[in-house]
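Hi L.,

You mentioned the student needs an example of a multi-chain input paired with its predicted structure. This one should do, with 579 residues in total across all chains.
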Amino acid sequence: MDKSSKSQDMALAIRRKAIEMTSASGASHVGSCLSIADILAVLYGGVLKVDSEFPDSPDRDRFILSKGHAAAALYAVLSEVGFISDNEVLTHCGDGSRLMGHASHHLPGIEFSTGSLGHGLPVGGGMALADVLDGKDRRMVVLLSDGECDEGSNWEAIMFAGHQKLKNLMAIVDYNKIQSLKSTHDTLDLEPFVDKWQAFGWAVTEVDGHDHEALLDAFTAPTDSKNRPRVVICHTTKGKGVSFMENSVLWHYRSPQGEEYDAAVAELNAN
Amino acid sequence: MRDVFIATLMDLAAKDPNIILITGDLGFGVLGQFEEKFPNQYFNSGVAEQNMTALAAGLALSGKTVFTYSIANFPTLRCLEQLRNDVCYHKANVIAVSIGGGFSYGGLGASHHATEDLAIMRALPNMHALVPSDTWEVEETTKFLSKGVGPGFLRLDKTLPKTLGDTPDSFSYGRARQLRNGSDATIVVAGGILEDAIVASQLLDERGISVRLLTMPSLSSIDMEAISDAINDTGALFTVEEHRVVGGLGSAIAEEALEAGLRPKIFRRFGIRGNDFVTDVGTQAYMKKAIGIDGQQLANDIYEALAQ
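Structure written out for the whole complex:
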């Protein structure tokens, strides 16, 4: 089995579990989870050096899900690679569960708790800086949403990382172009998005965020020759994989129940 | 206080390469020596306190002990959520250092008056909010916070270049320090306003009132044994802080004392009263007078309270 088909299987599993989790718990943000299923599958399918047997290994790569509201997708992929049991996944958002609605560092395999937007990249910048100071050769990866890029704290961090030439820092943006109430274009336009990152001293790669080979190439590209941090802007579809959830603001909030749940599962199983 | 803090931090940084100082682009003429001596332990985040605090958390979660440095409300309120979520929730060894507590920058206007920081910092979970009152306490609280005890807030101001009164052998977190004993009333203070409390206690002494004087540097962990003794021994308790009376030292003591069933005959909080901003400006000494917490007015008010 090659890497791509392995990550394809993992992406499908993430989508199934995210739908199951958000349905069972009545939780929001299933669209945000489906949007990043492929990104997470490629990262955890072989890019990130993490080991569920040694979650605190000092040489592990570090990953922060800054868009913490898509925690169900993260819990799903962590269960796929052995950090969390399948049984615990079913407790998502339940009374007393460790799997809260936003990513929690109280779980093995999660470096940093998020939920309030605009925190992951600044903290990731600090972690990347620490690795530079300590001479550690490992990755620091932060996954952001597009709406999250409205937060000024991100641009403080983007400026700082560019200035410090943190080449070991990689930001990934889930650019599905839909935020909380409307499109990013109608809310607070990010364009010209590539130009902004470049102007702040970052190397920019644009990819189709559902093309596993393209994602793998982008994530494993050699560090920038000018020592710039790298951002991979992933053009994605919110709700990807379930036709009636795709490109819909409604599915930022709605939990799949009853017939909708059955239809979503059937559609995933057909693919 | 600022110079003592920097000198102490330089001693600590020389021994521990994991100690890092990040400034939010302030400290002209003060931080240069630190940068020169420890170029790999010093960063200027630019005027960007949210990133300063978050990146400090990232460094701390990678094994560093990070002091963030700015003035007035900038290292605290400007980046409050970064302190709460990134630092305190993750128990990161980040110490937010504010130079300019209270009215240290009294002439610069309300933006530079740090008069709610004690209330807000002590409300944060896992936070060690420390308010040294003299040189010895600045040195000791800095050393304590450098030992990887978790999140910290160090509120410094521009007063008091020297150590006042006797010092214990070592600093104990959560313990008050008694600077003078007395039998008629107790004044509890946190911060450089100690110098006014000393003046007040001397003036009261001249008028036949014997005052016990305590400093309470550990705002997040009030020394209730010392408060209980003070109430039992002297009956009257007065708190003094360069801060609104809402939520700070006086509030912290009142909350704990009431729950502990302690009933001082007289209890009064000296600080900023009223619900509006202090719109006056001037030197720190002028500002203290304007709001009635300079030594002379403290002595008068305490004398009258005891006479009633």
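You could point out the following to them. Strands of chain A lie at 62-65, 140-145, 169-175, 203-208, 230-235. Chain A touches chain B at residues 105, 111-113, 115-116, 118-119, 122-131, 133-134, 152-153, 156-157, 159-160, 163 (CB under 8 Å).

Best wishes,
N.
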